[in-house]
Every structure is written in structure tokens, then in C-alpha cells.
Design goal:
The chain is an alpha/beta fold and 469 residues long. The protein has 15 helices and 18 strands. The protein has a seven-stranded mixed β-sheet, sandwiched between helices. The longest helix is centred in the N-terminal third of the chain and has 30 residues. The protein is globular and about 80 Å long. Bound molecules: nicotinamide-adenine-dinucleotide (NAD). Nicotinamide-adenine-dinucleotide binds next to helix 6 and helix 7. The site of nicotinamide-adenine-dinucleotide has 28 residues, from helix 6 and helix 7. It holds the Pfam family Aldedh.
Length: 469
Amino acid sequence: MGSQPEDKAVFDTESGKEMVKELRASFVAGKTKSYEWKVSQLKAMLKMMEENEAQIIFALRDDLSKPELESSIYEIGMLKNSCRLALKEMKHWMKPEKAKTSLTTFPSTAEIVSEPLGVVLVISAWNYPFLLSLDPVVGAIAAGNAIVLKPSELAPATSSLLAKLIADYLDGSCIKVVEGAVPETTALLEQKWDKIFYTGNGRVARIVMAAAAKHLTPVVLELGGKSPVIVDSDIDLKVATRRIIAGKWGCNNGQACISPDYIITTKDYAVKLVDSFKCELEKFYGKNPLESKDLSRIVNSNHFDRLLKLLDEDKISSKIVHGGERDETNLKIAPTILLDVPKNSLIMKEEIFGPLLPIIMVDKLEGSFDVIKSLGGKPLAAYLFTNKTKLKAKFVAEVSAGGLVVNDTTVHLAEHNLPFGGVGDSGMGSYHGKFSFDAFSHKKAVLYRSFGGDSSLRYPPYTRGKLRL
Ligand code: NAD
């Protein structure tokens, strides 16, 4: 795991240089800019999914024991939606946008023209290894760029399948896949790109951004963070519980960037909430969730050990009120809830990215906003369950996060009319729907003037008399 398969040549800086040279030649020749080329590639991607769905599901099961339905809906289904939307709307997205003009440039007309950036690099993560690799690629194709995709080495089955399928279905002179880990990514990052789109953790994001800075390359950084869920007591408890479970354990067993990381609720409501979780979790995953086929495993032993370290910290283990079981052989951890977790514990200091869900108790729900701020950083998502209009307004006004959802979790990701991305520590830039097209386009300002209305004010001699005109 983590290295280039033996039968393939080593991918080094020189290989990166050659690859970018070839792609730039295709881009400069205008191959990727035509509407017809874009349509052909997006249709080919759809065909690729239609003809290989079983193989994709198999690879995801191999990498993460991802349940078939999760793979079908959240990886393949969502990517199909992105392709179909781009095919339907692309012509409209590509059209120059009329802009108003002012007295300063009178008489004139203006428009904003979207142009592709050039040759772009997409580096993706292991947790949704199919969707996170190809969703940005859809935007990059729609905008008319040549593309290199570097999937995550931590999902090796999906990575090698992507390399094969993309070579088989898409235009290899404009879209390429490089498999590999740090050495290969480093070789890629040494090249000059017109945009780098990175999904992953903040530590590597800093490496990506530093490499991009050398070439003044713009970046989109899709990162993570501790996404809180505030739970009020005036809610439909059953619906709220089920929606939190779906966003947490139903999303790759908590290994999702917008999964609920922790809950904040009032002291007098916490026990009721925990009871509701116990009841619904048993309905979904049975009495022995370690045997459930509806829960993904932890991706590898490093992440498994990392999660156990959070769970087994001295002051934390006594806080487990549900779950806690683990199966080291199969890298499984049961849905686990911890109640009344101290804010200075390890589990509250880093993004959990797994099936552990701590609950923090406050005297009054309004105190939740201070808890979120005190943990530092701006999360990728924040959720609130309430029926109170004033509390909703306060939540929207006071909580800074990539995205907010009231009375549900994670579903904003599927709303293509909303931008998806982080702020501060959770990232920069956004994508999905038209925002993906915009992420890979330059918005060129174009002003059209005629030869009339030529004011003498602009030209020397600069006399006082002209100022009084
Ligand atoms: P990962 O380990 O797969 O790494 C991501 C990519 O970075 C991989 O392609 C990897 O090869 C590359 N990489 C790793 N080390 C590198 C280095 N030293 N130099 C250059 N490249 C390197 O994934 P991860 O970082 O463990 O992903 C989990 C994180 O990603 C979490 O924080 C999660 O919240 C975040 N995430 C965010 C989103 C989003 O859309 N915002 C989606 C998924 C995951």
C-alpha cells in the first residue's frame, strides 16, 4: 500500500514535467475548450459508471468495506448527478454574463467571460475515494481544462480502478491519473499548475499551498474540522436522532468530512437523547454492530489505533454510555457515544473522523456558541436541531463554518445550488454544481467601447480648467 505498483515505472519530477508538457500542448491546441469535447467526456464518464458499477462497489468494499447502498448513493449516484447537471447546464454556465456599466466608462457595454484556467491538478482523499476524485474532475472538464488526478493511496483498490477506467473511457491526451503516495504527489507538486484542488487534512494542505505559492498557483483546499451538532429540547427527537445517526455512522462510519463530530445539548435533555440514540442505533445496526454489514470499517490500522487512543484516554473511558466495542482483526469500531466529555480531553482537541460521538452538556443552549468558539478553528459544517426561530437566527449569525444545516445533518452536500467548501481551518474555495465550473474558470472582465464620447479630461495638458468641466 502507498507505493506505485511494481510493474509501473517510477513517477518522478521528470515524469511530471513530461506529463504536464503533453497536457499543456493539448490545452493550447484548444482541445478541451469546445463544448463538444466537454459533452463527450461527461457522457463517457456516465457510461463508465453504467458499465462498471459492480467493480466500483467492489473496490469500495475492498478499501473500506463500504456498504453497497452507501457506495451506490453517495459515491456513484452523486457523481452521476454531477455529470447530468453539468451536461444539462454547461451551455448556460459557459455563456458570457452581461455586466452593468457606469458613468465612468460611458458609453460602453461589458461582460464577464469564463475561460478555462489551463492544466489543473486534483489530489483527493481516501474516505469517498471515487466521488472525491471525480467530482472536481467534472467541474474541471465542464470549465475546459486539461487534468491530472492523483487519487489517495489509502484506498488502493479504488485508486487503481480509477486509473484503469479513466484511461479506458476518457481522452488520455487531456485527462490523466497518477497513482501513488508522498513521492509521486511531491513530484506532481513541483510542476507549474494553473490550479490545484486538494481534498484532505490541514497538515498536507499547508504542503500543497507552499508548493503552489512557488508558481503563484491558486488553490482550492477542501479540508475538515470538528463539526458540531446543537440539540434543543423542543424537537422531534426520533427524527433528529435518526438524522444524526445517518450523518454520523451512515456516512462511512463517521469517516466523512461533514459527519457530526460532537453534540452539545442541555444537562436536562442529554439522558433522553442518549436513550433515543441507543434505541435507534439498535434498530439500524442490531445488538452486535461489529457484525453489521451496514457499517464501514476503519480505513487502516493507523487510523484504528488513532481512534482507540482517543477512546481509551484515562479520563474518557468512564464516559462511554453506549458502544465502545472494537474488533482489531477486521478494523471495526462500534457506534460509540460518550457523555459529559471534558473539553480538554484528546477527543475534543482533534477532528475525530470515526464512529465516536462525544456529548458536551451546557446549562443553557445559548452557551453552545461559546463552546464552538472555545474549541478554536472554523468547522466545515455545523448543525442545529430546534424549532425556535430566534435560536436559528442566532445560530446563522454567530456560527462561522463552511456550511450550516438546521434540523438535519450532511444533506447540504447534496444540494448543488449551494457552494460546498470550508472557511479558515476547514479550507478555502468551494465547488458543486455551477460552483465547480467557477472553481476551474477565470472570470475575465471584458469592456467594449466605441470611438465616441472621447473626453479630453484624460489627456494632457492637465489644466485646472478641465477639472471644472
Ligand atoms: P489522505 O491520507 O488520502 O491524503 C489526501 C491526499 O494527500 C492523498 O492523495 C495523499 O496522497 C496526499 N498526501 C498525503 N501526504 C502528503 C504529503 N506529505 N505531500 C503531498 N501529498 C500528500 O486523506 P486524509 O488527509 O487522511 O483525509 C482526511 C481529511 O480530509 C479529514 O480531515 C477530512 O475532514 C478531510 N476531508 C475533507 C473533505 C472535504 O470535501 N472538505 C472530504 C474528505 C475528507
